[in-house]
Design brief:
The protein starts with 5 loop residues before the first helix and ends in a 5-residue tail after the last helix. The chain is an alpha+beta fold and 259 residues long. The chain has one domain (6-258): 2-Layer Sandwich (Chloramphenicol Acetyltransferase). It has helices at 6-14, 32-43, 50-64, 109-139, 143-159, 239-254, and strands at residues 22-30, 71-74, 77-80, 86-92, 95-101, 177-181, 202-206, 210-216, 219-233. The strands form 2 sheets. Strands 1, 4, 5, 6, 7, 8 and 9 form a 7-stranded mixed β-sheet that branches.
Length: 259
Amino acid sequence: MELNNTWRKTASTIYEKPKDSKMLGAVELDITHVEEFIASKRKEGIKITLTHIFALAIGKAIKHEIPELNCYLTRGKIRQRKTIDAMISVLIGNQMGSVIVKEIDQYNIVDLAKHLDEKIAKAKAKLTDNNRKKKNLLASIPWPFRKPLFNFIRWTSQDLGIVLPGIGIKPDAFGSFILSNIGTLGLDVGFGSLLPPSNLAFVMFMGKSQKKPVVVNDEIVIRKMISLTSVLDHRIVDGSHGGNLFRALKNYLSNPEDL
């Protein structure tokens, strides 16, 4: 795998982040078997959700099929992350927060469910306080200087790969990808943004799951479907990587027991 081939060097030069480099992709997946798997695990007392399933499946897919998605851009070069870390959006009160699961590809689905739920329970108050402090810190800067300061921090941390003392934002501080279940907010489908300071190759969004008539073996049947959308940074990856990711996820969802 050649990370810094001719096209990647060209793409990282001609595209800006994220206004010019954004690619959008969407697919509708059959999760009927996944829902049955989740129900069976819950009967065993193991609380598994679709978010657990998708987070782990994405981590496994990156590990085994699409390692190019675990890269970031700094100093004009595509660099490979050492681990596959997932940033998972969670609802805290009436606002969204997030937790990071390090080396998510090393988990099985049962251990991930336990680990993530424990981490969310312990981190809710801390996340709320941290988010408020960070927002207040930026908001406390006078308006004419607020945007230039943010751009300077982003430029030093992402483009130069320098960690500023007292701020601690690293070029790969937001993990390998962000997963958000917007279906819990009542949205059938949606495309989010590549968070400017995140330096991610892609973000993934899960829509609302619902029953729909679909054709299976030339017959119309009712299946549980979900819309899955992704936003990718074209400086780092191509549309083919998004297609490979969707295909890999479809395979994992067909056999959730393998997770």
